[in-house]
Amino acid sequence: MMQTLIQDLRYGARMLRKKRGFALIAIATLALGIGANTAIFSVAHAVLFGPLPYERPDELILIWSAFHKMGASRAPASAIEMREIKDRSQLLEDVGGIWVGTGTLTGEQEPEQIKLASVTHNFFSILGAKPMLGRTFLPEDEDVKIGNAIILSYGLWQRRFGSDPSIIGRQIRVGTGGTTVVGVMPQDFQVVFSPEANVPLDTQAWTTFSSVIYKDPVNLYYMRVVGRMKPGVTLAQAQQEANSIAEQLRGNFTEFASENLSLDVASMRGDAVRKLRPTLIALVIGAGLVLLIACVNVANILLSQANVRHQEFAIRSALGASSARLIRQLLSESLVLCFVGGLAGLIVGMEGVRLLLKLRPDTLARIGSVQVDWAVLGFVTGISLLSGLLFGLAPALETRKVNLIETLKEAGRSSAGRARASTGALLVIAEVALGFVLLVGAGLMMRTMDRLHKVDPGFKPDGVLTFEISLSGREYNDPQARTNFVKQFEDKLLALGGVESVGGVSHLPLDDYPNWYSPYVPEGMTEDEQQNVLADYRSATPGYFQAMGSRLVAGRWFDNRDNATGASVVIVDDKLAHETWPGESAIGKKMQAENSDNGFNMKPVEVVGVVEHLRHHSLSQQLRGQIYLPYAQSTREHLSYAIRTKGDALALAGSIRQELRALSKDMALSKVRPLEYYVDKDLASANFIAVLSGLFGLVALVLAAIGIYGVISYSVNQRTHEIGIRVALGARRGEVLAMVVRQGMKLAIAGVATGLIGALAVTRLISSLLYGVSATDPVTFAAIALLLTGVALLACYLPARRATKIDPMVALRCQ
User: Fold this and answer.
1) Is residue 562 exposed (0-12), middle (13-18) or buried (19+ Cβ within 10 Å)?
2) Residue 197 contacts residue 62 (beta carbons within 8 Å)
3) Which stretches of 568-630 are DSSP H helices?
4) Tell me, what's the pLDDT at 25?
5) Are strands 464-470 and 670-674 parallel, antiparallel or unpaired?
6) Cα→Cα distances 242→33, 224, 249, Å
7) Which of 301, 327, 328 shows the shortest CA–CA distance to 424?
8) Surface-to-core class of residue 24, CB atoms within 10 Å of its CB (0-12 exposed, 13-18 middle, 19+ buried)
9) Which domain holds residue 549?
10) For position 395, what pLDDT does the model report?
11) DSSP character at residue 637
12) Which helix (H) or strand (E) holds 177?
């Protein structure tokens, strides 16, 4: 049996060499389908199933606070809350926390602002992450009397400190204070949290929280909490215990009771890819449809080849070959084809991964870990074999329909042709239907991208330069010192040539800096109603809104009267104003709002302005209303600037750096970018999906057109005698053209109708990725139906036009 198989495989290889044109078309089609699936599978496998770079990663969990009455289901914890969870848990080995802000490296070199995380001393031991040099943190590192310890990322150690192996124990300056380097993490170490945690993958250094954090207010929520379950503990058991702990906390702390605190437990790996999963699943479905279309196309090609070989099969049968033997031979030939196609697909897939790496948005940063491993090779082998069976089955089964006597006679050609035409027609309908589904998905993503590009973000990004500074260190511990520095700095910036307006804000729209949101209490609101209102808080200098190009809806902007000694005021956005005081003017309304200079406690304020809502989190979402406080009344260490200019915004970067250096030699300028950068970054995911789905759709369209063209061309060849007779009896060329086109269009329309049903079901799976368009958008469905029908008409016209040129004398003489 093995000898027979080897013989069939050798025969199949000879057949491919003999019919090189057919082989090249089939291999190219398979390479396209298998390559697309290989590239997408490589990404999905690395991102969704690749292990986190930690010890026993399946035991790691994230613990989120939830305040369901306020609509906050994935909120950070307070330091007290984290400590209580750790002390009360019986199922967790340990619990720790992290918060990422910014810090400024100073000293002999140029000041540099870095992403600096504060962590509990046990953070790295919970992850099971070991340093490349030195050690991780110890409990005594949290003691403020001993001094700060810092751990560097590999990239920062290599770039800033020249990969100096003696860095351990050295004092470096962060801000105006000294800190001791105790460790350097490995090159591949990353802190992989979900996007909502605002823990960037490219965090550059880590220091410890001080033990004084446990004196913070009970409901000061900023800590991102990570825990490690004991071996054998399930996620469901950990959640059950978390529910019990939340109940205890509500009973022991009035703050937690009033806010109806609950705890949500999530797998660290699952949570990290939670938002990516719909995107990758959509791409996997799209790639799978491309492969199915490719298989159907190759099956049609093989059917045409099988029909030519009907007499060969008849002779083999006459010599004693059974149907099973003939089927085995054809499947063996298909396996040779799919083997070569699989190798070509692997090469195409590797190139596809390189393309994905170039196009990837920041949300798919972990694509960088993609590699061709045994899982990828196994996947390629599996889909290659499956493809061989799929496209080889149809021609193999056709051999069972061979009538030995009829086929050996001349008339057998027509009967075999009709059988093949019937099967080919069904395959074309399937091909068009699959193409319709894929094209509708691509169309919906294209429309989503178009809608997102037209979204009004509440600001005008063109001509605006942004950057960050950090007012850290003892020199700026006092709010008045921060305010004085900001006033001097802004005066210098306004004096630069080409600058129209300047303003700073604590949280720039669409940036990844940790969000600040809390409750607010409008005057006259009942205690029950107070549990349902949350707002994003921002601290802004007077020129911020003008620099951003925001629209004032009512009232006034901040100005110099809104200083530390002036009346406490706020500006709210139109979303909050409408939800809080529907049908009324918000100007002059009183409320209680959180204030950073007041220990993040509530303070009475008056609304003096209403601004159009700024899309801070995403262009596709409006999460919460916004409250803006004057910077002089609520200072923050981190400050992002927006400068509106008349000319090239980036050309001002050098002058801005000089002015900052003149005011403070220890302050760094960082993230110098046009405001368009953040808009483009937010659009990157939608653009990525739209481009890939568009490529898939284009491939589907071309393959469907080739399939229809092939079937109609074959039909014309088989009906040459019939068409010759029709023309000889007086049929006009227009009638012949219409007859052939009608045959092909019936298949196309049947495929579109079948695809319509499939698309209505499949597009609901990508509804979470759409914006401004429904999954059953009639415009998209109608446009794709017209496009596919038009392409099918063109594919039918070309062979139909050839049919009109058939010479009756030549056709009849050939027969």
Assistant:
1) buried
2) yes
3) 574-580
4) 80
5) antiparallel
6) 47, 16, 10
7) 301
8) exposed
9) 472-666
10) 63
11) S
12) strand 177-184
One domain, residues 434 and 334: yes
Contact 519, 578 (CB under 8 A): no
Same domain for 447 and 515? no
Please give the structure tokens belonging to residue 159: 């770039």
Q: What angle do CA 187, 193, 196 make, to 5 degrees?
A: 140
Of 255, 210, 271, which Cα lies nearest the Cα of 84?
255
Residues 553, 556, 557, CA angle at the centre, nearest 5°?
100
Q: Which two tokens stand for residue 501?
A: 């307006």
Convert the pLDDT of each residue in 784-810 to its tens digit: 999 999 998 888 888 888 777 776 666
Q: What is the pLDDT of residue 486?
A: 94
Residue 441's closest CA among 701, 185, 812? 701
Q: Based on C-alpha coordinates, what's the Rg of the chain? A: 34
pLDDT at 411: 44
Residues 607 and 530 in one domain: yes
Q: Domains in the chain: how many in total? A: 3
Instruction: Verify that 485 and 542 share a domain, yes or no.
Output: yes
**Residues 799, 803, 808: CA angle, nearest 5 degrees:** 160
Mean pLDDT by 10 residues, the chain (815 residues): 68 70 80 85 78 86 82 84 95 95 82 90 94 93 78 94 92 82 92 83 90 86 94 94 95 88 90 80 85 81 64 65 68 77 85 80 65 73 75 61 51 47 76 90 91 92 93 82 93 92 95 86 74 85 95 95 93 94 93 86 93 93 91 92 90 90 87 93 88 87 81 72 74 82 87 92 86 91 92 86 73 58
Residue 605 confidence (pLDDT): 95
Neighbours of 751 (CB within 10 A): 26
Give how far Cα 768 sits from Cα of 445, 581, 624, 764, 802, Å.
Answer: 11, 31, 20, 8, 47
Q: Which amino acid is at 51?
A: P
Length of the chain: 815
SS3 608: strand
Q: Are 207 and 179 in contact (CB under 8 A)?
A: yes
By DSSP bridging, strand 625-630 and strand 534-540 are: parallel
Contact 452, 619 (CB under 8 A): yes
The amino acid occupying position 324 is A
Which residue from 643, 468, 360 is spatially nearest to 116, judged by alpha carbons?
468
42 lies in the same domain as 67: no
- Which of 195, 230, 265 is a domain's end point? 230
Indicate whether 103 belongs to any domain: yes
Considering the domain architecture, whether residues 645 and 563 belong to the same structural domain is answered as: yes
DSSP string over 241-261: HHHHHHHHHHHH-HHHHHTT-
E strands, 525-637, are 534-540, 552-555, 569-573, 590-595, 601-611, 625-630
Site of tokens 């960050």: 468
Please give the Cα distance from 302 to 296 (Å, whole number): 10
Long-range Cβ contacts of 315-319 (<8 Å, 24+ apart) = 315/408, 317/402, 317/404, 318/404, 318/408
Q: Is residue 246 part of a domain?
A: no
135 & 170 share domain: yes
- Residue for token pair 């071996």: 231
Q: How far is 194 from 512, CA to CA, in rounded Å? A: 12
Whether 434 and 288 map to the same domain: the answer is: yes
- Contact criterion met (CB below 8 Å) for 704 and 744: no
Report the DSSP beta bridge partners of residue 611: 552, 573
d(CA 610, CA 589): 11
In terms of DSSP bridges, do strands 205-208 and 112-119 run parallel, antiparallel, or are they unpaired? Answer: parallel
- pTM of the predicted protein model: 0.82
**C-alpha distance across the termini of the chain, in Å:** 42
Instruction: Return the bridge partners of 527, or none.
Output: none
- Alpha-carbon distances of 504 from 465, 509, 544, 576, rounded to whole Å: 12, 12, 5, 22
CA–CA distance, 105 with 181 (Å, rounded to integer): 13
171 strand-pairing partners: 180
d(CA 237, CA 409): 75
